[in-house]
Amino acid sequence: MRNKLVFLRNGKRQEISNFSPDETLLDYLRLIERKTGTKEGCNEGDCGACTVSLGRIRNGALSYEPVNACILLLGQIDGADLITVDDLAENSKLHSVQKAMVDHHGAQCGFCTPGFVMTLFSMHHSGEKVTRNSINDWLAGNLCRCTGYRPIADAAMASVSQKPNDALMKRWDETEKALKKLQGNEDLVVMDGENVFGAPGTIDHLAEACVRYPEATIVSGATDVGLWITKQLRAQKQIIWTGRAKGFDSIKSSAKQLVIGAGATYRDAYDALSQLDSDIEEVFRRLGSRHVRASGTIGGNIANGSPIGDSPPILIALGASLELRHDKKTRTLPLEDFFIEYGKQDRKVGELVAKIIVPKPKKNEYVRAFKISKRFDQDISALLFALKVTVQRGRIVSARLACGGMAGTPKRAKQCEAKLLGIVLADETSWEGAIAALTKDYAPLSDMRASAEYRMKTAQNLLRKALIEIADETAGKPRAQTRVSGFREAAE
Amino acid sequence: MKVSNRIKLETVGKALTHDSAVLHVSGTATYVDDILEPEGCLHIAPGLSSIAKGKIKSMDLEAVRKAPGVVRVLTAKDIPGVNDCSPSIGGDPILAEKNILFHGQVLFAVVATSRKAARHAAKLAVIETVEQKPIVRVEQGLRAKKKVLDPLTFKRGDAKKAISKAEHKLSGEMHIGGQEHFYLEGQVSLAVPGEAGALKVHCSTQHPTEVQHLIAKMLKQSDAAITCECRRMGGGFGGKESQAAQWACLAALATHLTGNPCKMRLDRDADMVSTGKRHDFAVAYEVGFDDKGVLSAVDVDFASRCGYSADLSLGVNDRTMFHSDNSYYFPECRIHSQRVFTNTVSNTAFRGFGGPQGMVFAERMMDQIAIKLDEDPLEIRQRNFYAKGKDVTPYGMQVTDNILNEIVDELERTSQYQKRRKEIAKFNAANKYVKRGIALNPVKFGIAFTLKHLNQAGALVHVYTDGSIQVNHGGTEMGQGLYQKVAQVVAEEFGVEITKVRITATTTDKVPNTTPTAASSGSDLNGMAAKKAAVTIRERMIEVAAKLYQAKPSAIRFAGGMVHIGKRRIAFAELAKTCFLERVQLSATGFYATPDITWERDKLSGNPFLYFAYGASCSEVIIDTLTGEMKLLRNDILHDVGASLNPALDIGQIEGGFVQGMGWLTNEELVYDEKGRLRTHAPSTYKIPTCSDIPEDFRVALYKSGGEAGANQAKTIYRSKAVGEPPVMLATSVFSAITHAIASIKPGMMPKLDAPATPEAILKAVEGMG
Fold first, then answer.
1. Among the listed residues A172, A166, A179, A248, the one whose alpha carbon sits nearest the alpha carbon of residue A210
2. CA distance to partner chain A, nearest, from residue B587 (Å)
């Protein structure tokens, strides 16, 4: 057992043995370190002004990701290398991404700029091929209100014209080695009176800790719990962080299914999920931002039971099941059964969401997933629509349809599914019953994201759209343009 | 203005980076919250009203006082002087007294040893209220006949009669949504006590002088005892013109009462709930026109949601009226504006200051006429442009500098508008589920404060004996690059490199009695004032050099860091040193008052503007008729900045302004519930544009006429033009393009589309096409 936080601060080992479990990384930087380069813009992980770069061991290798310091708990940087905007310039010589931002007039008021710089720094070190299009995705988590982004995108393109050659590259191997050493199996427990920050080193210990501290908040990425702290001012005295439990984030892919460890981040699971269908890829690309996807987990998205999480409807449509674990006992249930009603899930005290088992679509199964939001990138869905149908000889022989934002929970449309059975894809008139049946499955609410009428009308239209596309696809006909954006459209 | 001592421009007109660019990217640019906190600094959090209208029965603040870290709780009773932070006619209490005016009003404030402690403690208050039914929407306010200010009408001829006689007539109505500023740096102030009642406040504000005055009144101090300083804002956009004062006042009050430095920084949600926004409008109109679509008369009623107080609503709504013509001649007209009271936050300045709403109406009218006559809307627009003999605005000002024909012709060509319009018609005929649309819209925006006395500025320039220069002026830096533009002017006047000019923070103890940095006027006013100060010093230096070297003053010029005296050259620094030895003052103030502003509001006569800034924008969109989703595919802009002081900064203003305007008209939706509570009070629910919302194909150019690089006809600083606000309105082309796309569903029918054109609004309009 270890009772202090150990991490690297720009490559230098640092230890903290006394901190409040709900201390955010941003408050630590600005109030304790007194490093004010990192800014607070929204305190909820939406604007990116607080972006820092976190180096972690991912799949056995060092990788730097942009994260929102405002909703990351200080304890979550255990075992990571923390780099902030204050660290980039060397002997007052600007880093190449900083210089590109200056050269391209990428800053006006400058308040969002440190965040952009740190996202670009992470992108620069990602090793990913960068295109003008992928820059949109990299920058989706950073809001700028002054420039209109064009100069920042130009700076981003310019900054990757050369391979990284900076202080981090010089210490890369050394840092990787040092971080690997910090990934041991020991439990991390920092206690101060009734305050506990615990990060068990194994899944067994994690399951045990959840039983031993039934009052504790179980945290994976903190992309939601962070807001409980910063927005609702709900003090969190006991936190169990899943991030150190070895294997909790594992992803196993076989011919028939994916098994996703509940601790896998969206980013970890992105490639595996993307292979299921290009719509799924696009929805997960549009879920949160790079920042959020580097921290948030699929397990967390399910466990927290939000009616507007993007993963559950897709996973339900795919027919996923959930493995829950209580100490040493496990049980499995269909994912849709986990969501009982708004704010209530089938999770007992001390129980842990452990795994998500996702069957892969078969050859004659067609998947469509649509995310509807006011803004394309980094927005919460007004409506998430997911459909899987099996087609035999032009007829639908099985169907699973689930929506988010249409009820108090992510929910299957069972009446509509029943009406979809037997539909002849080539005969548009045969679709109407299924489309109309959605009004029996759902009674959506009006809120700031959309009205009930819009949600219902759009859900119906999306079913129509899906059927139009699948009908054309299965008939081998030239496809009508049905999208204004998205991977499927671009690919065709 | 003397410019004879220079040959050609060395610094003005250069595309220099923002003065703080290196600091911005390094994280070392100091914003108010980054200032190293003085010893004993306390932190303030507001206690906000949870209802929109009612009376306060009791406020039990015992639990707040007893909470850990709490030093003091502030209520209205603690204010020694005037409890008001209004920029105009009053009615904006710093702390609530008896009545609750809107949801999110500050009822009390907690002063504690940490910000976290203050925020937590503020939640412990027990407030008893008598809740009343609030007036939330404009229509409710109109029905209840509630107003914050009297209505105003511009009239020419008899519009109603002319419309009834017109060959064609149309009527319509629409809603135009408001907009949250969403400056990335929220409202923040740090007050530091001085001796004998003096107090200095660091405030993120566009109007330091107003903050100074309001604090003085609140504390019953003289203006001279209070100093307000602002080095930079993390964005303003009008949202820190009047809205910064309340937080500065609270910080000052806490400092006054505790003797400690006190900081108040709003959380994003509190900021969005408690500060004013762009006015939303209900517009209803009737127009008459001929077969060619040429207007004969316009009759339009504007009603705006002003909120619970007047704030800046007078100027904002006046400007809506001034720009309801955009670029078009109204032979006869009636332009009526009502300023409606609601129990919502008091709406305020926002880049464009009411102008954009006026123009959205004008452009909708053009689209509607074109759809009715089945013509190209661009044709209709051009036929209605101001022209010879048709050049007097509804408010009586003659348009003498119109360059829209040139700009629009050039953009029509470079954007290939006509070719693309044809392609789009083909595309739409071939596609059932997605539709494309294109529009090319003009902008004509009047430059000057319409409140005449605000058109003044002061500057202070020091030359030091090592040849370095300090410049200070009343304008504030919110990212627009004003400081750099003014520094370029000063460097130009002294013929020195820009690096010799040190920019200093705006502060009321260097340049007093300043006006807000607003109305796009920052560089027009402060550039000119700084130039005057620099010229005063330069003239003195010339006199010294002329005497010393027996030269004619006219033979002396400043360039390349040197002073050229006939064939002789000496370093600028050397002459500065010599001036000191000769006991000649190397410091001067400069003052500028814009000439030719003659507007008299009570008589509705005279010229409210010095000149107009022009521009045009062509947008192409694609919409999904099943979901209402929309993508901006391409945008071309040609914009007039006169002879640019700095093309890089100007392009930045144009692109940024356009994208901000696009956000306003598309994704950005403010949603209030029936109880008057703002439901979109954080970036999770209020969506400003992100990187993928800008068009992949985005072409922005500065308009250059054949002759003098588009020089301003008015005698402005180096013949440049203001650029802060006009580009926002280039975004009407996006809204018109969406209208075009929807209209393709059923030719001849005008889509009923309100702003913002969210997916929901677009789908509703699509459904309305039958």
1. A248
2. 30
